[in-house]
């Protein structure tokens, strides 16, 4: 320091270079540059003490020239004036190449992908959804994510857009919407049928002449079931049919009921009367009886006995003999021998009288209650006024035409009787088929209906009594 102050240095220069402050001293005609750091190390004093040539050599060693290079890991040290720069070998980084280079340090992953070091030599890229490839360098096209649904065909328009070609059953941007069958270009309903929606199903309203789920089948005449009442239908041609009617029906479409009398069930010239659609009644001639008048009637068993005027008919083989009542005679008791006292008979007599209550036959062969209004000797007739106001005239010798409305003394098995049916005012002819002490008398009528009666509900149908028997 004293040496410097002795005036050997003619001037002092201070310069600033690369953030280092360097002081240049003039010493013996030479410029001696000493940095602040060198000064702090005492180099200035060293310079004073050492020979100039030796000190200059000491100052002239560059870091890159040192025995131990400042650059590590086989890096190259390059001089830059009084500094150095390390050129790192492959795989190293840092100011002195002291730090190992990792795979992700080179940013191998593209398009903002996230890089992850696997080991010192390997890495993996986490690509965003729009990119793919080892370094996410390849753009993912829209169709690769299978945006089109339900077997639709996908076509890339560009890197960001796509187009779906839907099948006939689907629609929408991605073919996600079901096409209703009625909305398809080709309707499921054939032959000009109307397709009607029923939620996700359809119903075909067929045009006239067609049938089937999709109206694919031509209607045949029998398809409309024109034949009624279980009849069988037969197609004659495309427009015509024929009905095979079941038993009991008739008509073009078997719509008409065959009434019982149309089958001619009544035999031997009997008159058939339809009671309803299923039952009938045969009015037999006097010579026949039975449900269908199939049974021959013996003369004594006829409703109108051959023995007139209450004569009793007795069988004699196929023939008969009449036992005539009082005042009557002849083979059939047809001759009247006494007429006096008829109109003046007492109420307790056994003869019919004017004003007496009777049960008389009407034109339908049914019996109704009434009273006698007239007895004519001249006409041999008797006039009855029924309770409903109707009148009828009968032959006096018709013993079954007018009956005294009187309870019979006795009723026996097989007696012919008349009785009302289920409370009706109309009286029917029948005969006793069973006698019971507890139940009374079971009567079977000409139409085969049966019922039980008490004795006071029955009136004996005369076979041999006088037509004038009293009440």
Automatic annotation (TrEMBL):
PANTHER family hit by this protein: CYTOCHROME C OXIDASE POLYPEPTIDE VIC-2, MUCIN-4
Keywords from the UniProt entry: Calcium, Cell membrane, Disulfide bond, EGF-like domain, Glycoprotein, Membrane, Repeat, Signal, Transmembrane, Transmembrane helix
Alphabetical list of PROSITE patterns matching this protein: EGF_1, EGF_2, EGF_3
Membrane topology: Single-pass type I membrane protein
GO molecular function terms listed in the Swiss-Prot or TrEMBL record: calcium ion binding; Notch binding
Protein name: Fibropellin-1-like isoform X1
Disulfide bridge partners, by residue number: 88-97, 127-136, 166-175, 206-215, 245-254, 284-293, 324-333
Intracellular or extracellular location(s): Cell membrane
Matches recorded under InterPro entries: EGF, EGF-like_Ca-bd_dom, Tudor
GO annotation terms (biological process): Notch signaling pathway
Record CDD domains: EGF_CA
Cellular-component GO terms for this entry: plasma membrane
């Amino acid at each position: 320091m004293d040496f410097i102050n002795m005036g050997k240095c003619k001037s002092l220069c201070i310069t600033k270079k690369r953030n280092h402050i360097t002081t240049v001293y003039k010493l013996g005609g030479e410029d001696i540059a000493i940095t602040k750091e060198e000064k702090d190390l005492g180099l200035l004093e060293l310079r004073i003490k050492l020979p100039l040539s030796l000190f200059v050599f000491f100052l002239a060693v560059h870091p890159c020239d040192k025995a131990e290079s400042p650059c590590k890991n086989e890096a190259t040290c390059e001089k830059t004036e009084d500094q150095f720069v390390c050129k790192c070998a492959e795989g190293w980084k840092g100011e002195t190449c002291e730090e190992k280079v990792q795979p992700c340090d080179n940013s191998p992953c593209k398009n903002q992908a996230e890089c992850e070091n696997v080991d010192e030599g390997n890495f993996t890229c986490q690509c965003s959804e729009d990119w793919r490839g080892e370094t996410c360098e390849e753009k993912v096209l829209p169709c690769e994510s299978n945006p089109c649904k339900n077997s639709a065909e996908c076509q890339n328009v560009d890197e960001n857009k796509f187009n779906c070609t839907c099948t006939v059953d689907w629609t929408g941007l991605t073919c996600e919407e079901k096409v209703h069958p009625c909305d398809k270009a080709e309707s499921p309903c054939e032959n000009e049928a109307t397709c009607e929606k029923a939620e996700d199903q359809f119903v075909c309203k067929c045009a006239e002449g067609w049938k089937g789920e999709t109206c694919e089948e031509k209607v045949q005449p029998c398809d409309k079931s024109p034949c009624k009442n279980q009849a069988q239908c037969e197609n004659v041609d495309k427009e015509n049919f024929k009905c095979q009617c079941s038993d009991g029906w008739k008509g073009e479409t078997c719509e008409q009921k065959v009434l019982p009398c149309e089958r001619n069930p009544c035999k031997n010239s009997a008159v058939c009367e339809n009671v309803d659609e299923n039952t009938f009644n045969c009015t037999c001639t006097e010579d026949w009886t039975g449900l269908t008048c199939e049974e021959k009637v013996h003369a004594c068993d006829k409703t109108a006995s051959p023995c007139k005027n209450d004569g009793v008919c007795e069988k004699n083989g196929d023939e008969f003999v009449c036992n005539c009542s009082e005042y009557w005679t002849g083979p059939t008791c047809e001759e009247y021998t006494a007429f006096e006292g008829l109109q003046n008979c007492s109420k307790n007599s056994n003869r019919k009288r004017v004003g007496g209550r009777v049960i008389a036959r009407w034109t339908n062969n049914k019996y109704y209650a009434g009273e006698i209004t007239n007895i004519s000797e001249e006409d041999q007739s008797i006039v009855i006024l029924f309770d409903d106001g109707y009148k009828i005239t009968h032959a006096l010798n018709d013993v079954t035409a007018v009956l005294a409305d009187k309870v019979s003394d006795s009723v026996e098995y097989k007696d012919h009787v008349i009785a009302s049916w289920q409370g009706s005012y109309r009286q029917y002819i029948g005969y006793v088929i069973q006698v019971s002490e507890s139940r009374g008398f079971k009567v079977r009528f000409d139409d085969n209906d049966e019922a039980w009666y008490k004795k006071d509900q029955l009136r004996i149908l005369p076979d041999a009594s006088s037509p004038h028997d009293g009440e």
